[in-house]
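Chain entry —
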Amino acid sequence: SGDYGIQAKDELTLRLVGSNTIEMENGMNAIFAWKTLNITGGGTLSVTSQRTGIVAFDVFTIDGAAVQATSLDSAGWNALESQGGFRFVNGASVTAATNNGVPIQAMNGRSGSEPFVYVENSKVNAPIQAYKDITLINSEVTADGVENGLLSLHGNIAVSGGTVRLDTQGSAVCVEAEGAALEIKDGAAVTLESQTGNAVYSNGTVLASGEGTRLEASAGLPAVWSAQDVKAEAGASVAAQSSADCAIYSDQGQVALKDCAVRAASPVEADSILGSEGVCADGVWLESEGGMLDGTAQISNSAVFQDGKGAVKGELAIPADVAVTEGMTLSI
């Protein structure tokens, strides 16, 4: 029709072969599906629209295909939008960009809908916003120079394996719902930088766990901010740096560190790690720079450094890969 490049009232499957392009100089959407939308095949699809590039009212799946979507209008239109949720699987490659909207948005637009984003063994180059859960499994997710990176309004965010690299103005990873969680595990490598917000903001809990799992967070506000507990355990490594506040902060819970490596850097006037219910560390390689570690912290069987000078408390077995830089000293 005049408003759409492709419109489907029933389930729509597009099997891509070769290179394909849809450009909408006028009208609304390049593709509009009233039910489920499946894009498969080994080809590529590039869509450009003044408004939202591709819309699905039900679940929108990209299975193995490469899709690039761009929305040009500055009125806040999205590039990819689904009211059922997204599934990017089996080597899918997804790139999305907007002028002033959300590049990938799983939005709640109909009764009973709980839109999610599920990415497995695929690549996404765009920020993601979901009404419910965001699940990333053995995938690569990147976004640079955007407002927010990963945002879940009413669900959890889970990263299992793979890599996430986000450079944002606001929160790089944001879990809005009270009691929800950010979980990073199974060797995932997550690098987050926020210019004006938190690298991690969670109204629930934050957990980094598992050998080889790495969280690197840098921000102007607390790099890792959680309303409830912040936990690192089982061989995980966490490096957090704030230029103006605590590096790691729990507003209503505890910072609990066990069998992991943690580096926290903050200004001298701020605690490097602070929890309203305390800080406890057992079996931890713990480095504090700039600000002091909370003086009430309960520490056992750990190596604790302040500005490069360290001492062992109890018996220590190094719990994760650590970097020993020039000038560091450890008294045993």
User: Anything to note?
Assistant: The mean pLDDT is 93. The CA atoms of residues 169 and 319 lie 34 Å apart. The longest strand covers residues 255-266. The radius of gyration is 22 Å.
